[in-house]
Write a structure and sequence with these properties.
By secondary structure, this protein is an alpha+beta fold. Helix content is 40%, strand content 23%. The chain has eleven helices and 17 strands. α1 crosses α3. The longest helix is centred in the C-terminal third of the chain and has 28 residues.
């Protein structure tokens, strides 16, 4: 890792491949364990990135988007055992992005309740997994993993899970309890590469609503949907030693990740000016990530890779995957009442014009437009006489 660049060296030929991203983190070694179990940067070693560093760079932006009313998605992709769940959920004192995001959200809610007591806040939580193309509610799990909840499509909101339960949570303790319950219900199993390998994709959904009254006394709401996605790791059967059910699960995981790769490739082509049909309907995963990748959402992708030389090909594939994903362009809009949005935009435009007027920097087209309007008004006045 060199700054934002990730450099991969072929163990056979010594050839280097360089990939540039917004951030590149090293978390394999160079840490010390604190008394509470938290891994921090070792003295004289600035290469290690602890959990707080990752959250500060990635999670804070997701939190800001939530307050501003934007939908946000953060998902982790990579080989099994490479650190996706570590980054998203974390373990023990080393909290990942999801619990830290929730903790900070409630801290800011408490602060704003004191400064703006008239504003009401609602937080809803859901947690699901996609196991072999079947959707399971992790907060209300069914024993039948093969027949899950149905996916429906709304003309405006897009794909959603019918029957998925959402829980109102009024504190960080409440959301942590729900998260722990959902994590216990996740489908995990041991393979040769990971003792607690995720056998399904997990999506944590947090809906944040801010309600307040406008100047006319009407109640308005601003809503943000935050999806935090922990994808199951891509697998090679010869490396994981998977057989029987584990082998079938690995095949289903790879199939859905392949569909996701096709969607990312098509969206990248469209962003570069090509007109390509995007195959969102090829898997349950791509249906549920449609808004995140090609719709109304601000999206962050974490690509987790292994430093082991035997995983070179898989690491190279992950980096190429991420390199294509960064070409995708999404258009996010604030989720608010249309009338309130129009009023807000008009106020913003008015403030800009007042500022320009005070500085004497009004654009020529506006000044000329005002003169023409005055002239037209004069003509009408004379005509009416």
């Amino acid at each position: 890792m060199e700054g934002p660049a990730t450099i991969l060296t072929n163990p056979q030929t010594g050839e280097e491949k360089r990939f540039a991203f917004d951030y590149s983190y090293w978390s394999h070694d160079g840490m010390i364990e604190q008394q509470d179990g938290y891994f921090s940067i070792a003295p004289n070693n600035s290469k290690f990135a602890d959990q707080n560093t990752v959250y500060r760079d990635l999670g804070v932006g997701v939190l800001r988007n939530a307050w501003d009313g934007y939908n946000s998605t953060l998902f982790a992709y990579g080989q099994t055992g490479s650190g996706k769940s570590w980054s998203i959920v974390g373990y023990g004192a080393n909290k990942g992005i999801v619990p830290t995001f929730a903790e900070q959200l409630y801290k800011e809610i408490d602060e704003r309740r004191h400064s703006s007591p008239s504003t009401q806040y609602e937080v809803k939580f859901s947690m699901l997994e996609i196991y072999s193309e079947a959707v399971r509610d992790l907060l209300h799990p069914s024993d039948d993993k093969r027949h899950g909840l149905k996916i429906r499509e709304h003309p405006k909101k897009g794909f959603y899970v019918e029957g998925l339960k959402t829980q109102f949570v009024d504190s960080y303790d409440a959301i942590e309890k729900q998260m722990d319950e959902g994590t216990l219900n996740r489908t995990v199993a041991a393979t040769n590469m990971n003792a607690t390998s995720s056998r399904a994709h997990t999506i944590v959904g947090i809906t944040f609503v801010q309600k307040q009254k406008n100047e006319a006394g009407q109640e308005t709401a601003k809503t943000s949907v935050v999806n935090l996605v922990d994808l199951a790791g891509s697998e090679r059967a010869d490396s994981t030693g998977a057989t029987g059910d584990r082998l079938k699960e690995g095949a289903a995981i790879n199939q859905s990740l392949s569909a996701l790769g096709n969607v990312i490739a098509a969206l990248a082509d469209n962003s570069n000016g090509k007109m390509v049909k995007v195959p969102f309907r090829d898997s349950v995963l791509t249906k549920l990530l449609k808004n995140a990748l090609g719709g109304n959402s601000k999206t962050v992708m974490i690509a987790a890779i292994s430093p082991a030389d035997i995983n070179y090909e898989e690491t190279l594939s992950t980096l190429r995957y991420a390199d294509r994903a960064k070409q995708i362009k999404t258009v996010a809009t604030v989720n608010e009442d249309p009338t309130e949005k129009l009023i807000r935009e008009l106020k913003t435009e008015n403030e800009k014009l007042v500022k320009l007027l005070q500085e004497g920097n009004l654009p020529a087209d506006i000044v000329n437009g005002d003169r023409e309007n005055m002239s037209d008004a004069g003509d009408i006045s004379h005509a009416s006489l």
